[in-house]
Design a protein that fits this description.
This protein is of the alpha+beta class. The protein is 18% helix and 37% strand. A hairpin with a 7-residue loop joins β11 and β12.
Length: 243
């Protein structure tokens, strides 16, 4: 199974960078963060991954300097077939979709672990993705600590899982490293950042690995690469097999 995990930053880079990148890589599964609901069908049609599971974390309907006002926005997993979708909220709930105020409060959104199963060549793969709670400058704050307890509880429902996404907390700090004790961290150690300074709004050379690909023992990830030039975060690309 070929997987791509990527924070796509809404639709800023979709047509000129991200969709051509998907054309080239031809993934079996996409685990995407910061997806506008309005773009889901375009992604399905372009990739041939016709099934999807979407969870809206917020709605972007008021002018802001971070994202266009394109409405519902959140996590989405794409594949040719999907089963057993679950949405584990650790902030908010499905009945209340908040407005997103990027600069006033980057945590003004729901947070969720989205999980699905997909079958590829007779093997069942359990997948999960999230866009974890934000904190500034790679530091861990109290809200992250509180939400990490809830995230771990949600992950404990899955004895075997491929878990990926934008963690908003870096390798080398307690939250990422706790996950690396539970699962295998498949981001090569030579990789020092997953933030693309040429595209990221700060334009700073941020040396933090905040995007993750973890696997439980039944899965083996190989040919893992981190690809720049597609969004403000770099894409994680991997081939994953069942042992």
């Amino acid at each position: 199974m070929k997987l791509i995990s990527l924070n796509i930053e809404g639709d800023k880079h979709l047509d000129d960078k991200i969709l051509p990148f998907f054309d080239k890589e031809k993934p079996d599964v996409l685990c995407l963060q910061e997806v506008f609901a309005k773009d889901i069908q375009k992604i399905c049609q372009r990739t041939g991954l016709e099934k999807y599971s979407f969870v809206s974390q917020a709605k972007v309907t008021k002018d802001n300097p971070h994202l266009p006002t394109n409405g519902l926005w959140g996590l989405c997993i794409f594949a040719k077939n999907l089963a057993k979708t679950r949405k584990h909220y650790y902030t908010g709930n499905a009945n209340q979709i908040p407005e997103f105020f990027a600069y006033q409060d980057p945590n003004s959104m729901n947070r969720c672990l989205l999980t699905v199963q997909t079958e590829i060549e007779g093997d069942i793969y359990q997948l999960g993705t999230t866009h974890f709670t934000w904190s500034g400058e790679g530091k861990i704050n109290a809200l992250q600590k509180e939400n990490f307890v809830k995230l771990k509880a949600a992950l404990s429902n899955y004895p075997e899982i491929i878990f990926c996404g934008d963690l908003n907390t870096p390798r080398g700090e307690a939250i990422y490293d706790q996950l690396a004790k539970i699962y295998k961290d498949n981001i090569p150690q030579k990789i020092k950042t997953t933030i693309d300074k040429k595209i990221h709004k700060s334009k700073k050379d941020i040396q933090l690995v905040v995007d993750a690909l973890f696997t439980s023992p039944t899965y083996a990830a190989k040919k893992v690469k981190v690809v720049a030039g597609v969004s403000d975060h770099m894409a994680i690309v991997a081939e994953i097999n069942k042992k």
